[in-house]
Amino acid sequence: MFPLPAALQPVRVQATMAKIISVANQKGGVAKTTTTVNLGAALAEARQRVLLIDLDPQAHLALSLGVNPDDLTASTFDVLTNPRFEIGAITIPVGDGLTLAPADINLSVAEQRLGGTIGREQVLRDKLRAVQADYDYILIDCPPSLGVLTVNALTASESVIIPVQAHYLSMKGMQLLMETIELVREKLNPGLGILGILITMVDVRTRVSNQAVAALRDMFGDKVFRAMIRQNTKVIEASATGRPVLETARTSPPAQAYRQLAREVLHGQEAGL
Ligand SMILES: Nc1ncnc2c1ncn2[C@@H]1O[C@H](COP(=O)(O)OP(=O)(O)O)[C@@H](O)[C@H]1O
Ligand SMILES: [Mg+2]
What we know:
Elements: E1 19-23, H1 32-45, E2 50-54, H2 60-64, H3 76-81, E3 92-95, E4 98-101, H4 110-114, H5 123-128, E5 137-141, H6 148-156, E6 159-165, H7 174-187, E7 193-202, H8 207-220, E8 224-230, H9 233-241, H10 245-248, H11 253-270
Parallel strand pairs: 1-5, 1-6, 2-4, 2-5, 6-7, 7-8
Antiparallel strand pairs: 3-4
Helix pairs in contact: 1-11
Bound molecules: adenosine-5'-diphosphate and magnesium ion.
The site of adenosine-5'-diphosphate (ADP) has 18 residues, from helix 1, strand 7 and helix 9.
């Protein structure tokens, strides 16, 4: 056999490793789950292979994607608490390029179960290694607390997206969240960065909402994504039907805003930010 000229040699497909991003804020109702679903859908639309991981015992991520957590035989609970349980055993395809690792109510006792285990903060990170070459993005939907589940997510991630509601009280919990991120960075995951703060549920008609947006941009500068998600009933309708708003109302303002967020996330990756 003659060696092939370089130009004719088959291109070796390099296994890309998924970027792992946590969607975190200990405050409930700030659109963590909505952002996980719709950023995931927007990235999948952009031909990325996306895995969505639910770390919230309320299992809203599954519900928002039409999966009934009561019908599951296994969930992220089993992955986190059983050393022999792999993520691949619980994943469910939920769309073109979109895969879900669902939670269920069992996860509410995971904190206690992991309690005394050595290396309990690194369990998710280690489990994700096995699937990291199969996806381009892994998004982790965090629970509304800063306990061991969120710490597992932050330890496994290269960056974090912080959804914040455009409301004057929204800045109150930020300090604690930033301290937790700093602590994880120091003790467990030096590479962890803040990808960006996402302002959600903006109501441009009210002064308080506009003031909150201005205050957040003032305080966090270019750490705030340009994409901003307005309050819009299409989002609520979409999650009730179990599909991303990108599918149920393709050209609606929130769908477009989540596509813009996806472009910023993809662009940040290209720029090596
Ligand atoms: N842009 C939006 N406009 C209107 N409602 C929204 C929007 N984003 C989220 N919601 C609704 O707000 C509630 C809380 O959102 P969710 O994503 O579940 O927050 P979290 O996961 O942080 O608790 C849900 O009922 C969701 O449908
Ligand atoms: Mg949620």
